[in-house]
Amino acid sequence: MRLVRTLVSAISILAGALLIVGWATSSIVVRSVEEGTALTSMAATAFDLPGVLSAFSTQVQDQTLDSLSERGIEADALGVEGEVRSAVDSAVTSPAFEDAVMVQVAAVQDSFLAELTADDREPAPLVLAVDVSSLVNARIDDAGRVGDLAPDVTVAPVELQVLNAEAMENSRKGYAGAAWLAAWGLWAGLACLAVGVLVSHRRRWFVSKALLAVGVLCLVFAAVVAFVRPESVMSVLPGGLDGMLGQVWEDTVTSNEAGSVATRAALIGAACLAGSVLMAAVGRLVGSRR
Asked: Looking at the whole model, is its pTM more than 0.90?
């Protein structure tokens, strides 16, 4: 019976520690999604993928030429097709274009969060419709003959695929788990520790062991953030390198915040280990009393 109680107590300590560390990490993920950092990070990453920007530019060029044709302006016949394509490509590849897209991405944050948490969403890619008319018009206006012929061009919104269907579904599942941990992980962890206290036959050591477990896990987490390659961590998260959790990890944990996150986790771990030693000393002073 004592062996069973010891085993249950040990499992409760480990489960409680893991839940508490998971709560702390998941809170970062959920906050990043709710504040829009995750979506803008994914959109920026989509822009950096090889061939995406050139394909995007070609699509906008074709739509611009179609818009001109609908207005009776045949750019090819007038010998200005090259100027149109050059003006559009210049607009799409400019820093101002990506900045404008990021503004539009931030504007659809609420709908993204709704898709991420919808129970009845069919598996499909995460696609954003980007309005490029104003930027295209600004460049065409500066393109000499083309600007004189077509001072105002209407270009239909073009689509930017941020996540494919599989990565989006994995991200939805991963986010659901992260949201649960962020909301309930701390309380579930404390409940597990409480169970461990109740079943432990040597309760004077329990707090020391619990602090030890949390401390070790925090130090391991700090070491992962500081020393493990980001790609190795992101590859095992739901959605992989291209998934939301992978992008959030890269954006909020392994980029500019890596040092501070690792330092904070190491300090918490060290504090818990010191507390474990202190409580062990207290337990020894208590002696055989429970």
From this structure: no
